[in-house]
């Protein structure tokens, strides 16, 4: 019999998550029935959505939500061979049983040269968020100017590079000088540290005096309130995330956005990547191709050991990750 380790939400987060809000437990897994598979997580993902979604969807004692790349270790399902790798959405667990219906097999053509963890990052949910958010929500066109915040993270780093592939000028910001240096290295035209600039307003104006056609907003809050005043006429804003607000205990009260929306006839659209998953294959194929061509670079912040998942999650929310935050079991 296999015993899985799982992380549960012991206590709902109040403000910034603490390691004491989590508890590690053991779960005895039953023997496999016909049609079932036993899987072991190889890589797990920590993502910002876990913070707001835990409040919305979870109760104390639930296993933390999340996705993993897992290897099939035993199979009583002829459609799944032992040794194959899948992406699953089974939460923070080392092992689990599945009937196969909730699994996405990694393409058999997955190149040996690429870490399979990319299926949780640049060639997975965050990459797809960038792909559909930029091309479909922002409706980016060649020659335009794109602004993206949290630009050195899993989604933002792909947004900037896809905008360059699509023939745009890209301005990005991040929370440290080393992240800013990384953005320049991967091709951003302008990059700045939002924590150290004296005036965000001035910095945005200097980076693109004519303003921005597209704003891919991962951060919300004060940054978005200032950036909206720098949009060009008919500019488009993709509201992807609001990480600056996820840990607020008292909702922020922002400036109101109607005037710039009206005067510049802006479009602003929130989106959830999974609404585009009917085109998931198209996105994965395009992202994989760009990675293999060397046009889309990736970086992963790998934390070793399942036991360190809460610390990796908290670290990611604090900005300790460059690129995608991954846990290697
Ligand atoms: N709508 C959708 O379907 C999806 C939305 N998202 C959203 O996209 C955003 C980015 O996610 P993802 O790329 O996975 O995460 P990242 O890899 O970008 O990690 C989060 C980053 O957010 C930055 N950050 C944290 N707090 C703040 C703050 N107060 N102000 C500004 N930046 C902050 C930190 O970078 P720094 O050092 O630069 O501060 C940190 O590294 C999140 O808001 C997430 O919720 C993600 C996936 C799907
Ligand atoms: C089948 C994979 C499920 C992964 C769920 C991801 C949902 C992300 C939505 C993010 C919103 C804000 O961060």
UniProtKB/TrEMBL annotation:
Q: Which UniProt keywords apply?
A: Acetylation, Cytoplasm, Fatty acid metabolism, Hydroxylation, Lipid metabolism, NADP, Oxidoreductase, Phosphoprotein, Prostaglandin metabolism
Q: Which Gene Ontology MF annotations are present?
A: 15-oxoprostaglandin 13-reductase [NAD(P)+] activity; 2-alkenal reductase [NAD(P)H] activity
Catalytic activity field: an n-alkanal + NADP(+) = an alk-2-enal + NADPH + H(+); octanal + NADP(+) = (2E)-octenal + NADPH + H(+); decanal + NADP(+) = (2E)-decenal + NADPH + H(+); 13,14-dihydro-15-oxo-PGF2alpha + NADP(+) = 15-oxoprostaglandin F2alpha + NADPH + H(+)
What are the Enoyl reductase (ER) domain coordinates in residue numbering? 15-327
The compartments listed are:
Cytoplasm
- Which EC number(s) does UniProt give? 1.3.1.48, 1.3.1.74
Residues annotated as coiled-coil are none
Any one of the GO CC terms: cytoplasm
InterPro entries cross-referenced by the UniProt entry: ADH-like_C, ADH_N_2, ER, GroES-like_sf, MDR_fam, NAD(P)-bd_dom_sf, PTGR1
Does the record bear Hydrolase in its keywords?
A: no
An example GO BP is: prostaglandin metabolic process
Concerning its family, UniProt says: Belongs to the NADP-dependent oxidoreductase L4BD family.
Report quaternary structure and partners.
Monomer or homodimer.
Name of this protein: Prostaglandin reductase 1
